[in-house]
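A student in our group prepared the protein record below, which I am reviewing. I have pasted the whole thing underneath without changing anything:
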Amino acid sequence: MLTRRSLLFSAAAIASAPYFLSESAQAATPKNILVMAAAIDDVVGGFDPAEAYEPASYDVCGNLYRTLVTVDPTDPTRMIGDLATSWDVSEDGLTLTFQLQDDLVFESGNPLTAEDAAFSLQRVVKLNLAPGHILTQFGWTADNVDGLIRTDGSRTLVLTLPEIQAPGIVLSCLSDLCGSVVDKVEVLKHETDGDLGNNWLKTHSAGSGAYRLVEWLASDRIVLEANPNAAVKPAIPRIVIRHVSDPATQLLLLQKGDVDIARDLGSDQLKSIAGNPDFTFIHQDTLTLMYVAMNMGLPELQKPQVRQAIKWAIDYQAIAKNITPDLWNVWQSFLPKGTPGAIDDNPFQKDVAKAKALLAEAGYPDGLSLTLDYPVRWPFSEIAQAVQADLAEIGIEVQLLAGERKQVITKMRARQHQLAMGRWGPDYIDANGNAVAFCANSDDSDTSAVRNPSWTNHFVDPELTEAVNAAARELSAGKRLETYAMVQRASLERSPYAFLVQQANVAVLRKGVSGLSLGVLDNYTRYSGIQKV
């Protein structure tokens, strides 16, 4: 059971902000410390922006680092400058030139220059870890990136593309976490065996965001403190993010005053405190989807009729109505609602007879057996049980395999799952991000440089791959949207993903706490405006 004593953190944090917690204490958390309850067990590789690729690490890293450009919080389809004051695109579309702000400083006190920006993007390409494909898709490689990403003085960054890409895609990708600018001098101090500081940055920060990383204990806590050199100083000097996977426990801690913000309350918990003046609700529609992935490395799942049978067996409306009301709504396309080009087709509904006929057509009139990996937290556990029951009705026996989300992610990335429940937020706003992730796979080998969900699930469709690649090179916005509409409808018929629901993010704050800004994507969430009175 979580108590105030369990909220004790590092000795350094206690020394700088005395807060001796006891099981019997009933006072609210002190004004100079914000305690947030969230499920953070999905952090796999730590907080290097060249490697971080999970929702919790994105959420945190967005407050440790800044990027050249970011999304306009009032219009997420529009890009605005962050570190960059302006940028230009050459007439041939192959060169982007950015002008950086003056007087930028890292948390270390080192000046932030165009050289740091160039180094940061180059190291993402050279390391080529989980998010590396976001930049390597432009043709940048370890061999050519030093010449294609360069500086022209201390304030000018020049990016050259080997081939034409829609500028909107490039800018969207640069606003992603992997576009974060790190402190070259500080990072290289901690380089070991040519890792460009990767091992050190897993548990340290070297950015210019509002906060810096103090401590991370996996599946336990993350401690941040204000960056003394931040351009905009945050109001709260220290933030403690506690891992609390159970929504009911998050609510209990919130009600007792043990935490100031709960990030993952379920529908039942939200309903129980609706209208209570002691709590403030912050809502933000997100681009996050939940889906069931089907690994086509399994012979049974290579048959399109089996994949379609699974899609027609699931009761999507019952999931949204009975398990996730007001938080997750039915959505069946790989492009979430709110993305330019998203179609609103939701063709699948529970049809047991049709699903059984499809199984029989595939050669399984008596059904088959599969396993389903899922994160052991709400609402995954409840949805997994619902999917298990739905598939049982058509003759598919499903064995449920529960694990921490990082375990499920690791197993999926190793392509060792059969069925698995995934949660996916686009890498960036442009439709290309999800289209590439869920439809493009030109190299399904174990040595592939791109390990997106299509690769993870052995989904190889040359027609869709070519269509997605062509859309990325198309400079006409109208033609791009037409292509994405076609790809979405084809994917509904062919793909190994049953998209279930799309998330509406809700955070609950105790009375006197304000200023949390939730993003449409996790890395756009900001803590810097949080205040306590």
Residues 1-26 have pLDDT under 50 and may be disordered. The CA atoms of residues 148 and 160 lie 5 Å apart. The chain is about 30% helix and 20% strand. The two ends are 28 Å apart (CA to CA).
